[in-house]
Amino acid sequence: MDDTKFVDPRLQAREGLFQQLHLSTFETMDYARSVQAVVEETGSDIDADNFEYIQLMRGYEVTKNLAHIEQSQLEPLCNSSDKILKSQSCALANCAQLCAAATGALNHWRILYEIPADLRDNDTVTKALKEKFRQQMQTWQFIVNDLSGTNNELQNI
User: What single DSSP character describes residue 90?
Assistant: First the structure.
């Protein structure tokens, strides 16, 4: 008996992009862990020229610009995140954490966006991805709320 499963050719065609976005998410989390390690080791905030911090800021900006967030549930979160990052009112390590959470959620959003619309509601195809996206969004929203001093709840994830 053959155990191979049918994979929609439209998904196969996007597999390279999906792998790239997953790799980006893992790299982002590695940068965030490195920032956390520096803070734990030194007991103080990171410097503005910290390599991992720079990569996290850059990764967030690039990912946000590629994520098709216009008129989505992500647009207000991106706007709030941008406001926090521009205010320079919190520790750089906190900004790094914010960028990492945002980039992870945005990467999952991009993957979902690339799945053909007729397959997005198929639990076999997207259930685990939607759950991971929801978790990433909750983390991102929590960090935004914490850094901005608000308590906004996520709507309709």
Answer: S
Among the listed residues 74, 99, 93, the one whose alpha carbon sits nearest the alpha carbon of residue 35: 93
Give the Cα separation of 104 and 117 in Å (integer). 21
Contact present, 155 and 73 (Cβ < 8 Å): yes
Name the token pair of 83: 């406001």
Residues 45-69 have pLDDT tens digits of 999 999 999 999 999 999 999 998 9
Alpha helices in the chain (DSSP H): 9-13, 15-42, 51-66, 74-87, 92-114, 117-120, 123-148
| pLDDT tens-digit map of 80-115 | 999 999 998 899 999 999 999 999 999 999 988 888
Q: What is the pTM of this model?
A: 0.85
- Return the DSSP state at 67: S
CA atoms within 13 A on the CB side of 93: 14
Q: Half-sphere exposure (CA, 13 Å, Cβ side) for 19?
A: 5
